[in-house]
Amino acid sequence: MRNLAATLVVVLVAGLAPTSHATEVAYPIGYREWHHVKSMIINDGHPLFAAFGGIHHIYANRKAVQGYKAGKFPDGAVIVFDLLATKSANNAVEEGERKVVGVMVKNAQRYKATGGWGYEGFKGDSRDRVVAGKAAEACFACHTSQKDRDYVFSSLRK
């Protein structure tokens, strides 16, 4: 019984201790079933082609849809940027391999330093993180141009 109590104390204390995972953004399971906000293709010649060339699909959870409508996103809003390569054949463009799943999560307290948004990217079809620390700050630096829109580039299609 004493060992069980000691183990429980260790688990509880470990659960309360700050970790490096405190600001991590979770992989957005099931995001393709969320509200589809828009799609676009960035072609060669666009200034962001090197980093973001391909087909973009933007998805939003319910809270993010509320934020799009209100112009201010509530905590818990999640926006997913699904970037895929393009394949062209027979005068058609279709989705190729997934390049990255980019995620923005609104939590005003957790992400104070980046306008209330947490940023993450997951490589291809994996859960391998490609955005961390300074990279998240770089995401925010780009999004500051959209401060009047709560740091979000996309809009709901009417």
Provide an overview of this structure:
It is a single chain. With about 160 residues, the protein is of the alpha+beta class. The protein has helices at about 1-15, 50, 60-70, 135-145; strands spanning about 35-40, 55-60, 80-90, 90-105, 115-125. Strand 3 and strand 4 (about 90-105) form a beta hairpin.
Name its key features.
5 strands, globular, disordered N terminus, alpha+beta, Chalcone isomerase
CATH superfamily: Cytochrome P460
Distance between the termini: 62 Å
Q: How many domains make up the coordinates?
A: 1
- The main sheet orders its strands as 1-2-3-4-5
Which regions have little confidence, pLDDT < 50, spanning 5+ residues? 1-20
Strand content: 25-35%
Structural class: alpha+beta
Label the overall shape: globular
**Helical content, roughly?**
10-25%
Total helix count? Answer: 4
Mean pLDDT: 86
Largest sheet: 5 strands, antiparallel
Give the CATH level 1 class. Answer: Alpha Beta
CATH fold field value? Chalcone isomerase
Radius of gyration: 19 Å
Q: What's the SSE pattern?
A: HEHEHEEEH
CATH architecture title:
3-Layer(bba) Sandwich
The count of β-strands is 5
